[in-house]
Design goal:
mainly alpha
Amino acid sequence: MICQREGCSNPVIPPRRKFCCEQCGRIAHRQKNLKLMAAERQMLKNLHRDRKIRCCLVCGNEFMSDGPWNRQCPKCKKRAAY
C-alpha cells in the first residue's frame, strides 16, 4: 500500500494504515484542516452577506436580520410560536 499524502509515494509500513510515517500523517491532516477552514470561512462570509438592519413587519422595531427571508424580530417570532 502507498502513502495517501499528496506528493508522497513511500510504502506504508504494516502497523500503519494510511500514511508511511507520523510526519506524513500530520502534514495530510494539516492540509485537510486548512481546506476545511477555508471552506468554512467562505460559507460564513456568504451567510453574513445578507445581514442588514431591518424593520419588523409586526411591531416596527429595527433588528439585525439574518437574510431576506427574516422580517420579524426575535420577540415577535417567539410570540408567534406560542
